[in-house]
């Protein structure tokens, strides 16, 4: 019988996922990843959603520990140096990272774990965990993406411009991922996502 080893390190090894599964949900800012995740978690509370750490300032209504762990740049850099992240990246002027220990514990205990992260982090996870299932969410058009980011009304004009510039690059990378789902009609996209996660 094949020996099953727990996942311990993403930085140095390529691991298979022994008990649970790791799902990577990526796609450009404003495409609707967070909204899809929120509804998915309501429908499937057994999923484990990894709360990331960021140096971005909280938006109105965001709660520390629920939406993100909000930390200073110096604290984030200290945690990077200590190897506390499974992956991390700088996006639109802020750091974002996935806490290593809690995620590995959840996967090893058999949970279906979802990471909602940007392109560079998603690439790091794919490199470290080739058996992670990666899903890229696409907008129906670039114009619609811009409309959604602006409609969210949460980011400054400069932040919107950075995110849209980055989105061009991100969309071109969609084919690197296992599955692409277009988030045009919300229910259709949600059903496609559920089908990917629960077969
Ligand atoms: N299918 C859809 N049709 C129309 N609007 C949508 C759809 N899906 C999401 N939205 C809206 O688009 C906006 C951006 O969605 P959301 O914040 O979930 O994007 P995101 O991909 O999580 O962005 P970020 O990566 O910046 O966190 C929200 O106002 C949301 O209500
Ligand atoms: N590489 C990582 N990217 C992350 C993580 N948590 C969130 N994100 C992504 O960052 C952008 C911007 O998010 P926003 O909340 O400021 O709009 C978005 O694409 C998120 O998916 C993470 O831990 N690592």
TrEMBL record:
The record's Gene3D superfamilies line, in alphabetical order, gives: Guanylate Kinase phosphate binding domain, P-loop containing nucleotide triphosphate hydrolases
**Which segments constitute the Guanylate kinase-like domain?**
20-198
Record field: catalytic activity: GMP + ATP = GDP + ADP
Query: Could you tell me the superkingdom of the organism this chain comes from?
Result: Bacteria
Please state the Enzyme Commission number of this protein: 2.7.4.8
Task: Fetch the CDD domains from UniProt.
Answer: GMPK (cd00071)
Query: What is one GO cellular-component annotation here?
Result: cytosol
Q: Which residues take part in binding ATP?
A: 27-34
Is the ATP-binding keyword given for this protein? yes
Which UniProt keywords are given for this protein, alphabetically ordered? ATP-binding, Cytoplasm, Kinase, Nucleotide-binding, Transferase
Query: A single GO molecular function, which one?
Result: GMP kinase activity
Query: Which compartment or compartments is the protein found in?
Result: Cytoplasm
> Which top EC class is named for this enzyme in its record?
transferase
Concerning its family, UniProt says:
Belongs to the guanylate kinase family.
Q: Which NCBIfam families does the UniProt entry name for this protein? A: guanyl_kin (TIGR03263)
Which PANTHER family does this UniProt record tie to the protein? GUANYLATE KINASE, GUANYLATE KINASE-RELATED
Function field:
Essential for recycling GMP and indirectly, cGMP.
The protein in question is named Guanylate kinase
Q: Which organism is it from?
A: Tolypothrix tenuis PCC 7101
């Amino acid at each position: 019988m094949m020996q099953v080893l727990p996942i311990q390190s993403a930085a140095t090894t390529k691991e298979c996922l022994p008990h649970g599964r790791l799902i990577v949900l990526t796609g450009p800012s404003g495409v609707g990843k967070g909204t899809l995740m929120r509804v998915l978690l309501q429908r499937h509370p057994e999923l484990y959603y990894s709360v990331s750490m960021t140096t971005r300032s909280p938006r109105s209504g965001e709660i520390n520990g629920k939406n993100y762990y909000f930390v200073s740049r110096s604290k984030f850099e200290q945690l990077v140096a200590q190897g506390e992240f499974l992956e991390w990246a700088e996006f639109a002027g802020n750091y974002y990272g996935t806490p290593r220990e809690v995620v590995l514990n959840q996967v090893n205990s058999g949970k279906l774990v979802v990471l909602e992260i940007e392109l560079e982090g998603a690439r790091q996870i794919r490199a470290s965990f080739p058996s992670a299932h990666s899903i890229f969410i696409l907008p129906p058009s670039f114009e619609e993406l811009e409309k959604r980011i602006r409609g969210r009304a949460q980011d400054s004009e400069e932040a919107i411009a950075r995110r849209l510039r980055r989105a061009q690059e991100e969309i071109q990378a969609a084919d690197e991922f296992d599955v692409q789902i277009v988030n045009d009609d919300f229910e259709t996209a949600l059903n496609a996502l559920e089908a990917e996660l629960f077969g």
